[in-house]
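Sat 14:20. Reprocessing the chain from the morning session after the first attempt stalled halfway. Input below, unchanged.
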Amino acid sequence: MEKIIVFSILYCITYLENMKLRSKNEVLMEENRELRIVKEEYEKVLQNYTKLAEKYSETVEVIKKYEHEISVIKTLSTVAFRDKLMELASKINERVHGGKNFIRPNEVEDVVKNIIGHKFNEKTLGKDLYQAFSYVVRTIKYSKDSIYPVIKEVNVSVEDATYNITVEVDWITEVYQTPLETIERGEGDCEDMAYLAASIIQNYLGENKDYEVYVFQVLWNGGGHAALIVRHRCGTIAIIDPAGKYYTGKANTVEFNDARDGLLKWFEYWGINEYNFRKAWFVSVIGEAYIDSIESAISFLD
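Finished this time. Tokens:
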């Protein structure tokens, strides 16, 4: 009988100790879960900090790039000095506005040789255009723009043989890269991809006058995007949108369609309609055209 009592007591003690251990284990598991959550949050903060540090470094490099030019033009007269500063400001601000100077066929000669292997050929046009689309999609990672300085105003005065310079600067997050910069970085946003694709196709077309290459940029309520449009002189178009992974045609072949049908389908793809459309513009190697409605965009291409 005594043995039974002893065993019973030992069993109870063991059971209670086991319950305590289970309770402690649950507490430890909960603390472990909380630690994992804290670790994940820390990793996110660290990642954001790293990206911000990279953007800051890029901005510093932009400013350093022009320090030598500033030191040279300081020796000029006040008027000439201000003119030179404004010229420098224009160079900096050019990246904010984009435009025809960012379609640069000569920068991508080697790319055309490597991915297409030849210049314009009517028989292989659809597949060649697809190769240009595929190259940009495969090699360029989508990334948002870094912060960038915009020179709003420059004032210069001289006092005691010393230049007093006042520069009004805004910082923005919408900036254009050259095609070569996009290739070297391996990343860019929709405009950068569109200008790179436009440069490749413009180089491929060479002196052919039957086709026109446009970077098409559109803004609507809540969004904005850029793609490439190749227009045949008869009014048909092909749309190549690397950032949107969209093109007109079938598997591995870009095709030309009626301008109205092609453009409206692309607008539908992005949820753009006559009610939320704000404005758009076409950019080619010869200039720019601004559009205030969907119908105007269609008429421009017809």
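The first strand starts at residue 141 and ends at 142.
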